[in-house]
Q: What sequence folds into this?
């Protein structure tokens, strides 16, 4: 029996390391997102010691992986606002204005969460992956990946990502500035079976520059639903309700 177990472990390890770093990252992305075209609801909570929580809510539509439409649903004063992200280009539409305004995916939206964090669910579109080896995080044996931006338009210059060796479930990520300073650390939690896979529906993001501040991203109502192509055109945003 021991030999059988040992051979099984060797097979799993061999199978894992037969994958390229890009393929490993793709496996991680397949856990975070149910496909290239889907929708979900998102709740952001910003927490700071001694301050009242700040909450924002959104409905997000993704099409062909690299197109995202983010609709603000809460608080009331933000309802009707839209983010549109196509590739690495991003705009905001505010009801009553004449045209969408170009914005940066790197710009902070709330607490430790950037515009791009809300609009983009996966990593493989924007980052190249390099396998640094294996490392234990809490009780999980993890693959340690270094992600570097494919272009300067990517939200982060560098990310260190830990994913479980057997399941490829993301466990932890560190996000760095172009100068190499650690900006924030994220922990992927709340694993729940959704659309045939265990997916992390909660991300806790801790600010490494402002200690005592952190944000929570909560995903819900994830569905594989198509969205008309017109929704991802700047000229159509004023018609979306």
A:
């Amino acid at each position: 029996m021991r030999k059988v177990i040992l051979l099984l472990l060797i097979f799993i390890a061999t199978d894992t390391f037969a994958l390229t770093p890009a393929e490993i990252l793709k496996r991680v992305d397949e856990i975070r997102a149910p496909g290239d075209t889907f929708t979900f609801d998102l709740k952001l909570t910003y927490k700071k010691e001694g301050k009242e929580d700040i909450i924002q809510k959104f409905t997000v539509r993704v099409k062909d992986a690299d197109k995202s439409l983010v609709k603000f649903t809460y608080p009331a004063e933000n309802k009707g606002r839209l983010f549109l992200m196509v590739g690495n280009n991003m705009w905001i539409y505010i009801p009553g204005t004449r045209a969408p305004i170009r914005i940066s995916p790197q710009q902070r939206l709330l607490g430790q969460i950037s515009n791009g964090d809300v609009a983009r669910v996966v990593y493989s579109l924007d980052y190249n992956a390099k396998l640094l080896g294996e490392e234990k995080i809490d009780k999980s044996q993890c693959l340690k990946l270094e992600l570097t931006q494919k272009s300067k338009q990517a939200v982060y210059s560098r990310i260190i990502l830990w994913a479980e060796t057997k399941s490829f479930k993301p466990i932890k990520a560190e996000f760095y500035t172009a100068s190499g300073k650690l900006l924030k650390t994220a922990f992927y939690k709340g694993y729940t079976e959704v659309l045939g896979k265990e997916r992390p529906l909660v991300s806790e993001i801790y600010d490494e520059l402002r200690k005592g501040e952190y944000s929570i991203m909560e995903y819900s109502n994830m569905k594989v639903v198509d969205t008309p192509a017109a929704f991802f055109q700047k000229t159509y945003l004023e018609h979306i309700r």
